[in-house]
Amino acid sequence: MFEIQTQLFEAKDVRFGPIDHEAHPEIESKWTHDAEFMRLMEIKPVRPLSPAAVKKQYEAVEKEMEEDKNLFYFTIRAREDDRFIGKALVEWVDWANGNGFLRLGIGAEQDRRKGYGSQALSMLLRYAFGELNLYRVTAVMPAYNEGAIRLFQKFGFVEEVRRRKAIHRDGEFWDLVSFGLLNAEWREQAMA
User: Fold this and answer.
1) Cα–Cα distance between 192 and 185 in angstroms, integer?
2) Vertex 74: Cα angle to 95 and 137 (nearest 5)
3) What is the pLDDT of residues 67-119, one digit of tens each?
4) What is the pLDDT of residues 134-184, one digit of tens each?
5) Strands (E), 107-171
6) 161 by DSSP, 3-state: which?
7) CB burial class (10 A; 0-12, 13-18, 19+) of residue 90?
8) Most CB within 10 Å of its CB: which of 1, 68, 135, 146?
9) What is the spatial distance between Cα 73 and Cα 82, in angstroms, rounded to a whole number?
10) CA dihedral (18, 15, 37, 24) positive or negative
11) Strand 99-106 with 136-142, pairing
12) Mutual orientation of helices 24-32 and 51-67 as an angle, nearest 10°?
């Protein structure tokens, strides 16, 4: 299944890369002005951020990756032109129990629904289970994020917890849904 030369950071159309502190803040700042993207990516209240504010967030992310070792942050790049199109994270890693949480998002609307998210999730799972050797991963999303729910279910994630009416958006309350996938389940699928 895995060999030492297995490519961790490359897929057919996308690759994972590091944060570029000069180019990426401007791009991600534009994503924060897209309420649809932000409400799909974030559970907390959203707001537009300046490039300087995004750059500060990047500095905090890199500090946490160095000090706490429970966050793994990747930029998603289109292979055709190395364009920054999204982000993928393994976060809140609980090493004692082998648990981690996954998040990913494709920023610009024109880059969505092209299969980039599927390829990024495949790489993120390969990293979480193959490289970090986590026992299980969790993804949490609002029930209105039907695209993400279908994507994670396609990869074998199972609904584990549903917090009823836990997210308030535009005058309506939505369920918050947690999906889980075990390392053994992922390996079984990868072998099939």
Assistant:
1) 11
2) 35
3) 888 999 999 999 999 999 999 999 999 999 999 999 999 998 899 999 999 99
4) 999 999 999 999 999 999 999 999 999 999 999 999 899 999 999 999 999
5) 136-142, 158-169
6) strand
7) buried
8) 135
9) 17
10) positive
11) parallel
12) 110
Angle at 40 between CA 82 and CA 81, to 5 degrees: 10
Would you state the structure tokens that stand for residue 162, as one six-digit string?
A: 């549903």
Using alpha carbons, select from 54, 69, 178, 63 the residue that is nearest to residue 107.
Answer: 54
Ramachandran class of 159: left when φ > 0, alpha when ψ lies in -120 to 50, beta otherwise: beta
Query: What is the distance between the alpha carbons of residues 17 and 94, in angstroms, rounded to a whole number?
Result: 24
Tens of pLDDT, residues 3-22: 555 678 999 999 999 999 99
- Gap between the terminal Cα atoms of the chain: 10
Half-sphere CA count of 93, side-chain side, radius 13 A: 20
Structural domains in the chain plus CATH codes: 14-191 (3.40.630.30)
